[in-house]
Amino acid sequence: MNMPEENVVETLSQEEVWAFLGSQQLARLAFAIAGEPEIVPINYVVSDERIYFRTAEGSKLLGLTINARVALETDRVGDGVATSVIVHGTARELQTIDELEWAEALPLRTWVPTRKVHFVEITPDELTGRRFHLGDGAPDA
Amino acid sequence: MNMPEENVVETLSQEEVWAFLGSQQLARLAFAIAGEPEIVPINYVVSDERIYFRTAEGSKLLGLTINARVALETDRVGDGVATSVIVHGTARELQTIDELEWAEALPLRTWVPTRKVHFVEITPDELTGRRFHLGDGAPDA
């Protein structure tokens, strides 16, 4: 398979990116602490064009300074198509009682049923999405 | 569900971590450029306890300095179990003719059948893995 790249990769519109983000639950969050890249899986929800997830006391993520830069990726592969969305944005921990009460009502799942007591909000400033048509899925070497 | 965390999260042995890494193909790679976290999906293979993937001319990843720090995550969710492995390590681009000839023979798949002409090798220095038993999968709020 040797098609031109433009035939097999589509760029998603911003509307499609948000729709895909809203259809998924699992993403991976990248951030840096003292220059060292970190990555963690998160279960998230989207509300009002922001992304919310829970994290545990003592997690590396809570060591971030306020308004830390983060990048997030979610993807789905199946039926000959791979879709990937990447978000860049700023994270902050929810702090006020009003915020926390609101966040408790979000339909957030986590992999660990205990000790996920902190809520983090990501405000995106750049979202990109691509859809790859995989053809026969054979190695391309 | 309110089980103690130690009952629902297992820490994988290094042998289990390598076995899981070898069983997957899709990971997400985190790195930082000028302090800004970046994340990209990659299709990888493991060989001799190193991780290899292809990347395209002009990718952000190739803007990394030599011996750049990276973090990588791969996961699988199904049958009430979620497994996630996180690798920290150092990335370098393969350069010599011998290296490139060797890498061409790796069973590497990519989502884009063209323009993935560069090979990157990650030498891990820290690998961790966890297995989450999801119970009934209900939100834990």
Quick synopsis:
The structure is a homodimer of 141-residue chains. Chain A has 141 residues and is of the alpha+beta class.
Textual characterization of the structure:
Chains A, B: This is Pyridoxamine 5'-phosphate oxidase putative domain-containing protein. Chains A, B: InterPro entries: Pyridox_Oxase-rel (IPR024747), Split_barrel_FMN-bd (IPR012349). Two copies of one chain form a homodimer. Chain A is built from three helices and seven strands; from the N terminus they run αβαβββββαβ. With about 140 residues, chain A is of the alpha+beta class. Chain A has a single domain (about 5-135), classed as Pnp Oxidase, Chain A (Roll). In chain A, strands 2-3-4-7-6-5 form a six-stranded antiparallel beta barrel. At the A-B interface, strand 2, strand 3, strand 5 and strand 6 of A face strand 2, strand 3, strand 5 and strand 6 of B.
Q: What descriptive keywords fit this protein?
A:
disordered C terminus; Pnp Oxidase, Chain A; alpha+beta; about 140 residues; homodimer; 6-stranded antiparallel barrel
Write the topology of this structure.
Two copies of one chain form a homodimer.
Chain A: H1 5-8, E1 9-11, H2 14-23, E2 26-33, E3 36-47, E4 50-55, E5 68-78, E6 81-93, H3 97-104, E7 118-133
Antiparallel strand pairs in A: 1-7, 2-3, 2-5, 3-4, 4-7, 5-6, 6-7
